[in-house]
Structures are given as C-alpha cells and as structure tokens.
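Issue 218. Parser rejects a valid record. Input:
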Amino acid sequence: MPSTPKQNTSIRSSVFSRLSLTIDFILLLSQWAFLLLYFDHKLLFLKTITAGGDTGSHYYTAVYLKEELLPNFKIMGWLKANYAGFPLFYHYFPLPFLIMAILGYVIPLEISFKIVTVLGTFLLPISVYFMFRNMDYKFPVPIIGSFCSLAFLFNEKNSMWGGNIPSTLAGEFSFSLSFAIFVYVLGSLYRGIKENKYVILNAALIALMGLSHGYTLLMLVSISPFFLVSRNIIANFNYLFKVYLLGVLLMAFWFIPFLFNIPWVTPWRHKWFFASLWEIFPPVMIPFYVLGAIGIRFNFKDQRSYFFLFCLILTTVGYFFAYDLGLADIRFLSFAQFFLTISAATAFVTLNRWQKLSFAFPVIIGVVALYWISHNTTYIKHWVKWNYSGFEGKQTWKQAQEIFSFLRSTAPGRVAYENSSVYDRYGTMRIFESLYMFTNRETLEGLYMQSSISAPFVFLIQAEISKTPSAPFPDYPITSINIPMAAKHLEMFGVTQLIAVSNEIKNALKNSDSFELQREFGDIAIYKLKNSKPHLVTPADLEPVLYTKKTWKKEFYEWFKTGSSLEVPLVKMYDESDKKKFQYKTDNVQNLPQVPLNKPNYIIKETVGHEFIEFETTLLNHPHIIKMSYHPNWKVEGAEKIYHIAPTLMLVYPTKEKVRLEFRKGYANFIGEAIFVITIIFLILRPLYFRKNKSANQEPQLREAKK
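Output the parser choked on:
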C-alpha cells in the first residue's frame, strides 16, 4: 500500500531530526576536541599540584575537606592555616571542592582537582546548546549557539571577570562551574514555565548552582521577573515560587549558616577601571556582538529575543549599581558579554527553512568560528601549561622545597611574608598562602579574605612589611612600610618568622632590633622575630577594658592601626551582662587605662588541633588571650565564656586548670541540616504518596466498571 503525503512528510521529518541530532553530537565533540588542543590531557592527568593565580591556593582547601572534614562527617568547619583561623565554607562555595574530594577517594586528588577546575569550561558549550533547545530554537541554532560560547570562553582581555578561560585559570573555577549550570537552568526554566514541568529538576539545579557560586544565583533571581510579564502571571509566579523555595531548601544545610555568618565576614566590593575599550569589546567577540545585535533586531517580535534583550539590559544596569550594593561590578559585565555573544546564534533562525542546505551551515559556521577564535588566541595554551604542570614542574621547585624544609625545622609559630610578584616564579605569587600544606606552619594571608573578620588587620600588617602591598579593602585604608609597628602587630598574631624579598624591606629589617636574619635562599631572606612567642595561649599583662559601643570593626581597626594601647585587651561587649564582669569600660578605643595584673610564676601547657585548643594553666580566673580569630561557634569548657577582644582574637577567664575551646556547629547549622534532611525525605516519599492517592482514586472507578 503506497504511503500518503502525510506519512512521507512525517518520515522526512524523522530522518531530518535524526540527522540533525547526529550532526549536533559530532560538532559538540569537535568543540571538546578544540578545547583539548589547549587543555592538554597529559597535563590534566599528571599527578602534580596545580599552580597559577589563585588556583594554587585552592588546592589545600580540597585536601582539608577530604582529609579532615569529610572523615568527621562535616563539609563546613574551621581552617586554622590562614588569617589566624576562619570558618571554611561558611562564606564560600563547597560543591566544586566536594566533587574534588569525593573523586579524590578514587583517583589522586591532584588529578581530581584539575578535572573539576576545567569542568565548567567543558560544560558551557553543552549548556548553551541545551538552553537554545529548551527555548525551542530549531536546528541549527542550538549548535551555532554553542560555537558562539567558545568566543566568550576564549576572550583573553580579562582574567578576573569570570566565566572565560583566563578567569578560570586565575582561580575562578567555582564561578565557571556555576556559570555552566546557570546557563542550562535558564533554558530549563524557560521551558519548565511554559510546559509546567521540571520543578524538582530545576530546583535541584538551582541548589547545585548556588552551592557553586553566589553571583549566578543572584543573576538568575534578577532575570526571573521576565517570566511574570505574561498573561499567566499567577501560574508563572506559583511555578517560580515552588522552584526557588525547593532550591533554597535543598541547599539549606549551607545557606542557613551562610546567612547567620554574615556578621563575621569582611564585605568586599570592587570598582573596575578599564585600561581600554578592548576589555569590553574584545576582538574575538566583535563579530558575535554584531551578529547578536542583528539577531535581536530582526527577530524582535519573537519573545525569545525579548528574553535575550532583557538579560542584556539587566546585566548592563547591574554593572552600574553593583559597587553601591557592595558587589563586584565586573561580574555583571561578564554576563552581559555572554548574552550578547550567544545571541549571535539567533541571526541564523531562518536557516532551517532550507533543509537541503541546513546541514552544511553549522559545519561551515563552526569551522569559521574555530578558525577565528584560534587566530585571536595567544597565551591561553601557555597559561594552561603553567598551571597544570604544577608547582613540581617549575625550575624553582627545588629552592621552594629548601625554603619549606627550613621552615619545618625551625621554631613553631606563624609565618608572615612580604607581598611580592617575585614569588610567581614558584608557580603563583600566592604560594606562601599554602604554607600549612607544605610546612605544617600557619600564616596570616589567605585566599578567602571575605570569610575572615581578621582580613583587614592582616592586610594592614602586609602593608607594613611590603614594598608593594595589595590593599584589597578600600574601606580600610592601609599605611606604608612600618617595621617597628609591624613587629608589635606580628607579635599579637603569634608570628615568629618573616619572609622578605625586596631590598627595601630587607634593609629595614636589618636596621631593626626586633628582627634577626636566620637564612637566605637567593633573594629570599627569612627573619626571626626575636620577642615573639609561638604559643597561642598567653596570660594578659594588663587589665582588660570593655568597649561598650555596638559598632566595633572600624574602631578596632583604627586602634590597631595607630598602635596606642596595643597591650591592653580591648573587649567587645555583646550583651549588658558583660558590664558586670569588667571593672574598666570605655567608648573610646584610644588612650585606654593600663592597669598591670599580678602574674605569679605560672605554667601553661597547650595543645592545638584543627578545631580545638586545649591548655592547662595555674592562673585561675586570670584573663588568657587566645591568638585565634573569634567566632561565635567557638565553645569553651573550663571557663564561663569566650570574649571577643581587639583586633579579632579571643579571651577567657579559666575557672578550671584544664580549659578546652572547640569549634562546633551552631544552631544555624542544625536548623539548615534539619531542613535539608526533611526536604530529601519529602522528595523520596512524595512519589509514593501520589501513587497511593492515584490507586485509591482508581479503586472506586474499577468497582463501578465491574458493576
């Protein structure tokens, strides 16, 4: 029986669909092959510790999660290696490190770390492809869109904005992974609202995205009002409410402590100053910008073009208001560049009208795009090699090992170092941030500066001992080189050694009575701070003074900066009951009363673990200073209370000879974990509930049918 015209059309449509999917698959593989030309798989599977930019400092975080936190059934905890300790993952994003750590039980952690750092880069073209498909764009627009995303990835005009390969190599791989998830969620949300589907899927993806980075979550929430400009506003609002509520519940174990921890972070906002317009209009992206403008213009009646235009306008406006909101403005420009770049694919919407030729178009466009991108790429391959050959692959690795060996063998105590780009020869100028991993010695500076209340004080010390300080916090003005003041500040933080590299700092240390040269390694010199004690627990020499104002950080910073009355334990008041404990009180941090305390012969023995400090003392009811950063999750046994003293340290009055301080989960942790567990149980039982209800509703119908 001959087939009908309708059947022939259906057959042709089915054949076209299979062929287009086959071409899409092959071209997606070609994009990965193109990426692997730059990301050498031999380097990715080389067992070395990744170097480069901030990336080198991230590695110990994965080590600590794998070796210390996860074995104790924790994801969030206390990290003592930097900033005199800070709460890890309370204000940073755990998902990439969790993947690294779990993979690290199967393959070497060095390799799992590398794989996760490039995961977002390799997922982005696929996410863009599915975003266009979920927005109901027909072949070949989705695959062309994925080629457009490569132009965004290979933009070499910035390495801090996020999303592109240079930013990822600089250490922003968490953002890259979250960005790839964000792009997929956009398309899935677009389709889910339209068809009233994927509530649980989208909620789960939003949770994964939020656990990877916060800016993408902020951007997704900002874009969502687009879906409310509709005749189905109530239905769309209900859909979004369910998705976001479930998404927040699924990451409650992290998100609730994140919110409660905000008072214990240091906000960081950044205003970017452009060196040239090429940063906004990189040559590699200009053709895509032009095609994007054409696509939006000539498909202006298409609601999907409104969507891209809305995203573009929103992110551009976000850039102008970001600094005032305490955010990094350049993050928003990164999103704006991305949306305009991938909009180029919409210029080819009409190609599917010519089915006989449409198979050739994506191949031609893909070849041209890859040629153009490779022609405008210069340093990425070299940077990839620099990062993934690792610290061990540098010619300076032997000298670095000698420095580490010396620091391991010398007296305990924290180690400070001059800020200098000279250290980049070891793999990254941040190499000494990972000092604990290499030497089991703590240091002051670290990567996660927003996670620490001690960060502004640490960077003030950095300015006092550095020729070229970094000064990352505009709200906390720094000083210039000041070795005498630095000696006092370093003693407060339990620093016993200082690494210097510039002639200016070495000469200043040479002329100081507080420092003594210990060893030189080429131009690297290590000095001993003569009077500093390595112990974290020391009895106070002067009577503590209670500071009664509610605000404290700026005031404590000025007290620390001017250096007056540094010997006086200045106590932050948190409730009225504190006034009964302290005889001396003030609302002015300058010119504090200096009342000596009687200290008979005493013995203090201390033991310091990753999340605890134990000590035995013969000085009962005497104030003891703990040179570890304050946080309300620190709890004490053997003393009534932990007091927060300037700049950011702790103080206790022992009531027993043996005192133990331990960093424990707070009520916010338990609330978040409980919400998470209840949500998971609900999602597991939900299908059973609906199946039971469905069966119950069907039984009367079956009985009626039998009658």
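Fixed in the parser; the record now loads. The first strand starts at residue 77 and ends at 79.
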